[in-house]
């Protein structure tokens, strides 16, 4: 009778048992896990910006107008008291929301850049008053050279007045980051971005704005800092 002991062993060309040779070719466990970890890191590095970019794009298309304590207009460049086209588009949209009864107050935001005589907030307030908003209904928060500094200041103004909710008016692609910063400073924020002005005129401008805001949002979430101005 032939037993397992009597069965001939299959040997390769080097005279070694085939099963042993197969075992020797298996990758070390540490190398397998390193490869898996590298795959996860690469996948996250690629997918995260894509997901955030989609969120920037999606938020830009929202237009929320619930009854709120105030409309918050984020500042942009101004020239000796005259709002830039970007800023003017935001201010006109905020005034339209005010006239529609979305909120009884408008908050303009923004400090001075180097060499300026007038703050963005003051320029915005004066423009809104010229449009027809009562001066008593426009609050100028003249602090901040970027979105984060300004939202911190607005959060303080909200606490002083006992306000909770706000509709943020800015460029469409800026909405996601602005809302996040407002919420982090105690404001129940939604956005109603402007649909006019230079920020929405061309697809090339829109694409570059989405890329920039994707980086700005990730920078803020990861480091708690503002990378871009308003």
Automatic annotation (TrEMBL):
InterPro entries: Cell_Envelope_Assoc, DUF218. The chain crosses the membrane at residues 30-57. Residues 69-215 form the DUF218 domain. Keywords: Membrane, Transmembrane, Transmembrane helix. Pfam families: DUF218. This is YdcF family protein. It comes from Actinocorallia libanotica.
């Amino acid at each position: 009778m032939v037993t397992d002991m009597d069965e001939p062993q299959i040997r390769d060309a080097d005279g070694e048992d085939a099963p042993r040779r197969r075992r020797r070719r298996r990758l070390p466990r540490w190398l397998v896990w390193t490869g898996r970890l590298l795959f996860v890191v690469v996948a996250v590095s690629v997918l995260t910006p894509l997901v955030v970019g989609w969120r920037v794009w999606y938020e830009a298309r929202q237009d929320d107008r619930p009854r709120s304590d105030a409309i918050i207009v984020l500042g942009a460049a101004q020239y000796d008291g005259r709002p830039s086209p970007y800023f003017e588009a935001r201010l006109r949209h905020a005034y339209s929301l005010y006239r529609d009864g979305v909120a009884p107050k408008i908050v303009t935001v923004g400090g001075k850049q180097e060499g300026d005589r007038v703050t963005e907030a003051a320029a915005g307030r004066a423009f809104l008053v010229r449009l027809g908003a009562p001066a008593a209904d426009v609050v100028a928060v003249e602090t901040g050279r970027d979105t984060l500094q300004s939202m911190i200041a607005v959060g303080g103004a909200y606490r002083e007045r006992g306000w909770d909710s706000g509709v943020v008016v800015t460029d469409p692609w800026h909405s996601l980051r602005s809302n996040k910063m407002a919420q982090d400073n105690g404001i129940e924020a939604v956005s109603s971005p402007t649909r006019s002005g230079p920020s929405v005129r061309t697809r090339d401008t829109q694409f570059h704005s989405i890329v920039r805001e994707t980086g700005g949002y990730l920078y803020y979430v990861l480091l708690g800092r503002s990378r871009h101005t308003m």
